Amino acid sequence: MATTLTDMATIVDLDAKRAELVAQAEASGLRLVRFLYCDNDGIIRGKSAGIANLKERLETGIGLTVAMQAFTMLDHLASVQGMGPVGEIRLVPDPTTFATAPYAPHTATVLVDMQTLDGQPYAADGRGFLKRMIARAADEHDLSLVAAFEPEWSLAVKNGGDTFSPIDDSGCFTSTGMNIAAPIIDEIIAALESQGMTVEQYYAELGWGQQELSIRHAPALQAADHHVLYRETVRGVALKHGRYASFAPKPWGDQAGNGCHLHFSGWNPDQSVNRFYQPDADFNLSPLARQFMAGILDHLPALVALTCASVNSYRRLQPQMWASAFRAWGPDNREGALRVASPFKGHEAESTNVELKSSDSSANPYISLGGVMAAGLDGIERGLKLPPPVNVDPYNLSDKERQAIGIDRLPTSLKEAVANLKRDEVLLKALGERLATSYIAVKELDIDAFAAADEAFEFRQHIYKF
């Protein structure tokens, strides 16, 4: 295949960027660069390159066994054909994601794409899946998604043995809770902003030791990248203070769960016009937005296998927990799976967005957001009609009332969600055979492993791995 002028320009730009990064790393006294990725079970993993061979590694990547995308959070290897001890891929860095890690001495991070040995995208790479969905939205619908992950997490201390306790028992939104966490939060904010993430809001949440700190929205790929770096930063800074930050959906059975609500809106390709906004429509939602939302609701029983991706997730996804246990939507309805957020007065066109509440940080953010896009695009392509909004807690309706307006209960276990995913041809096709097969195999091995253990094992494994 001939190399085009555009290809040549891209190669030159990449070479210049890599040279710039090497010079920056040497001038900053860095010793290691972590090549990070998020695996099929939502765990952030990676390898590190020394500075001496950084230029080469930035070009060629670092080798990784094909087995790693079949690893579970318990480091068990799922049985997937072609994902065992034989074979290798490359972790090839995206230079635009390079950042110094303020929580690790003399260390920087860079996020990677998985590539085959001949330089092609690896079919089991979640980041590659999201890139495909972004390209499809742009090519087929002139649509560019802007998104923000809105994580909750718990600050904990480790007791003797393998148990953890919240750092405080303060109340929701209390200044006491903020004061207790203040030294850690201050350092986290500085660390996030040093890596190009703008902090929007912070407060102590409902659960003991629970925090919520949101960062500014970004184009879809950058939003997912930011969430990986956010998780790394929060956990890294907390450890410097002798604390554990847990993004587990339900770190303690008697406390509020940690969600990671996903906000999104659809824009034109240059992101100058919010195509989800229509000023004269109900709730300012355009027909495109309503079709996109209808697609998500239609696929949600299977989609939650991607967005609420752990066994532990379904302890949180319960009625009257403000966690969206029902397939419903409404304006500012925090018990609906989809919430139309109130826009900012005078900035309605820019701020109209939708929030998926059935989402948490045990999910791989690339797979989660890619799945949301696949479901939403299917809603557009099929011209799906959004059901009526719900302005009450769906739990307070009778079974007959819920049935009359098309509201049903979301899966009550990861096992049920994965079974739905295995029947959802749209999501399976979007994921592709290699990613879908490995993802489902990993989840099914998790399901079996946790079913054979007690609750204490589940809580302990999730609280420090997410």
Please describe the biggest sheet, giving its number of strands, its sense, and whether it closes into a barrel. 10 strands, mixed
Secondary structure tally: strands:
16
Task: Tell me the CATH architecture of the largest domain.
Answer: 2-Layer Sandwich
Q: How many helical elements? A: 14
The structure class reads alpha+beta
Provide the succession of SSEs: HEEHEEEEHEEHEEEHEEHHEEHEHHHHHH
Mean pLDDT: 92
Query: Portion of residues in helices?
Result: 40-55%
Number of domains: 2
| Fourth-tier CATH superfamily name of the largest domain | Glutamine synthetase/guanido kinase, catalytic domain
Give the amount of beta strand, in percent. Answer: 15-25%
Q: Uncertain segments of ≥5 residues (pLDDT<50)?
A: 1-9
CATH class of the largest domain: Alpha Beta
* CA gyration radius, whole angstroms: 22 Å
